[in-house]
Request: fold
Amino acid sequence: MDSQVEPTARSPLRRRPIIRNRQTKIVATLGPATSTPEQIEAIFLAGADVFRLNFSHGSQQDHAERIRILRTLEATYRRPIAVLADLQGPKLRLGSFRDGPITLTEGQALRLDTNPEPGDNTRAPVPHPEVFESMAVGHHLLLDDGKVRLRVEHCGPDHADTVVLAGTRLSDRKGLNVPDAVLQVTPLTAKDRDDLNFAIDHGADWIALSFVQRPSDVAEARRLIAGRASLVVKMEKPQAIHHLEELIEMTDAMMVARGDLGVEMPPEEVPTLQKRIVRDCRRAGKPVIVATQMLESMITAPTPTRAEASDVATAVFDGADAVMLSAETAAGQYPVEAVRIMSRIAERVEGDPNYRTMVSAGQDEPEHTAADAITAAARQVAETIQAAAIVTYTTSGSTTLRAARERPPVPIICLTAKLATARRLALCWGVRTIQTADISSFSEMVDKACSLAHSEGLVGENQRLVVTAGVPFGTPGNTNVLRIAWVGG
Reply:
């Protein structure tokens, strides 16, 4: 369907540009608290750059309506907006118990099996035979987000005899995690396949893939997406860490899903793993989102804890492309305030002298290619002459992603003729995307860059721009020209 929606009578076209005084992007999840045009517009104006649709909740019709609102908002403010569809993935859960919740004691035996009959204090039904196929003696099992911990003492193809290590209460349908095993489960259920096609047909720009354990999981998703959207791999399973380098190569972006990682891994491992993923994604030029529990207290409180503010700041200092709000904006009482405070934290960090020092310390040497040499030079020139911005012209997005990898001290203005590219790059660190008509020559591109950067309020008169592009146009990754341009009065 055509996702370029015209402004409605309710919200006439506004030409006032939206200026963000930060480079780190904000991903906001939509839900019951943010489902009306007024609510979505409010969090957009507060600072949200990318909008996440969580397909674990809500109907397809709910998500279609939110996309429609976002496309109207996009046309109203003439600013490309990225839509991220987050697939649910397989959910491993217990069955039910005959007499309601059971009480457990440390050291007691608990049998798990595929028998669909309701459980009791000695056994619990697990309607997932694939779990037992991958289980071994000594494996640990986590129930109810880790509130109950078990160790496997004996197992077979349809059962596991376990001992309770921690936890006292267990009720129906609680989640099951098997952190020690690679499960023979595809990350794409029948529901996910249907949701994936639905999301793409309705204009989603990014598809987030849950429950990734190995590279073949990503290959399957790539085949189904077939180039119709970009892919985000969610790092939430310990098994995926062993394939991190390969997964980064296969995906378009990554999400550090710390909530699920924190269930299946020791909590002390998550901060260092977050830094490693952010560093490796930046080195590869792939956007990376840090997600989960960033301002969780703001679900019910108008201000975050100081620890949460520091957590957001750490992700910004690390150089993440984006930080994400989940229930804070989807179901919280203060969604606008959550976006606003997250934006203020990012702004404050990026204005700190230590920020540039830390970002520069993570700078890798450019690869021995003309494109990398030009891109690295653009950052250095912009810094030396105190340019107002770096301008890239791109079709596929590769030139702009390369510029963002350098983490320059000035904004990156991306000109592209492809609306899909403009939307996807809204996730990328420091990038302001402007859709423009096709450009036939480099001189035309320089003139248009100066004109658009000025008219959009991104640079002032008599400021300088550093302009990069690939000539001839239309060749992905062919960045080979750099020019300094003045924005005339």
